[in-house]
Amino acid sequence: MGRILIFGAGLAGTCLAHQLLRRGQEVLIMDAGENHSSSIAAGMVNPMVFRRMNKSWRLDEFMQDAPAFYQEIGSEIGQEVFHPIVIRRFFSSEQEKQLWEERQELTEYQPYLEKLTSEDIQHQGATNLFGSGRVKQAFWIDAQQWVAQNSKYFREKGQLSTEEFEPESWEPGTRSYRNITYDQVIFCLGYRQKTEATFSFLPLQQTKGQTLLIQSAVLPENESLNRKCFVLPMGEQQFKVGATYEWNNASLETTLEAKEQLLNMLASLGNYDPQFLEQKAGVRPTVLDRRPLMGEHPAYQGVYVFNGLGTKGYMMAPTLASELADFILEQKPLNPETDIRRFKQI
Ligand SMILES: Cc1cc2nc3c(=O)[nH]c(=O)nc-3n(C[C@H](O)[C@H](O)[C@H](O)COP(=O)(O)OP(=O)(O)OC[C@H]3O[C@@H](n4cnc5c(N)ncnc54)[C@H](O)[C@@H]3O)c2cc1C
Fold it and tell me: By Cβ atoms counted within 10 A, which residue in 71, 219, 272, 303 is the most buried?
């Protein structure tokens, strides 16, 4: 049994910790106790990329793992976090509708796209120039609860300590932190990885995002509307509206500009008489090629990174964490698209 240290208890760190524990490892996590991404996220898992009306990258593999993982871990940590939802996409052009009509005939898309009905085309729930379509198998994870309840769970088991990483106590060559040597050390620091020396050479980007919580008596509570923005029903007539994309921006301030942008996007869907409740800002760890950052440090054996989960983190993390655990413990090769060795300088 190995003794493994993980820095970071966001989505990456917690999923990896569960996958390592399932493989019988001894795991210790250290986290600053200030999460500004996994807990801010809407936690939406949308199988489709609407821009090109394609399936998301490695969709079938991720969807085979993620729902069961979140339900199982949810019962382990004593918090149901998995919520199925129908996404109703209001097409933004005639071309988008035609693409849907083509895709819905293909076997590989049928698990995810409902065949368009006349009701979908004429749907009255929003400004609807080109019709709408319903995505199947979508779900959302209660992201705030995921982070909070995992922290509680690991802390109660003595596997999580709340502390800031101290670079001066870290010796990567010997995998020693505060004079304790670990078999493996994994960095899961999200967007703050950029400023931590060990993996600062990776091309990680910081992409700020903001969301609103609103109240509305007229928005549907059984579907997540989508065009320009998403509207996620949270129960009791409350809805999350998101999200902005602000590249190369790691500030955690909410801005009036983002609030107006989101309210305008919502207004372009319809007049829902939204009452503003709350605004949040966070920072996504993204990579230009839209693939995660996983693998072993080129100079330090036994030192790993799991990052770059980007905008679809909640869908990918369970499978990727499992793959990283197999790579660490059994040297099973990583998917080359996710391996940090894809960058030439490494
Ligand atoms: C507004 C917004 C909306 C989003 N919506 C979605 C969505 O709908 N669906 C989806 O799948 N994804 C969404 N995302 C993206 C998703 O949140 C990220 O992909 C994912 O949360 C990244 O997880 P992480 O564990 O890598 O990073 P983080 O969640 O940032 O976790 C890193 C952890 O490391 C700790 N840490 C950092 N530095 C230090 C240090 N020096 N010392 C000690 N601890 C440290 C932090 O405390 C933190 O808990 C959204 C993100 C944002 C900002």
Answer: 219
From the CB of 239, is ligand 1 less than 6 Å away?
no
Which tokens hold the place of 98? 């035609």
Dump the DSSP string for 4-37: EEEE--SHHHHHHHHHHHHTT-EEEEEE-S--SS
Tens of pLDDT, residues 84-140: 999 999 999 999 999 999 999 999 999 999 999 999 999 999 999 999 999 999 999
φ and ψ at residue 175, rounded to 5 degrees: 55, 40
Cα R_g (the chain), whole angstroms = 21
**Which one is the CATH code of 205-285: 3.30.43.10, 3.40.50.10470, 2.40.160.60, 3.30.9.10?**
3.30.9.10
302 lines ligand 1 (CB under 6 A): no
CATH of 3-41+143-203+289-342, one of 3.30.565.10, 3.90.226.10, 3.20.20.70, 3.50.50.60: 3.50.50.60
- A 10 A CB-CB count for 25 gives 18
What residue type is assigned to position 164 of the chain? E
Instruction: Please tell me if the CB atom of residue 131 comes closer than 6 angstroms to any atom of ligand 1.
Output: no
Q: What is the DSSP string of 70-105?
A: HHHHHHHHT---EEE-EEEEEPSSHHHHHHHHHHTT
First to last CA, the chain: 30
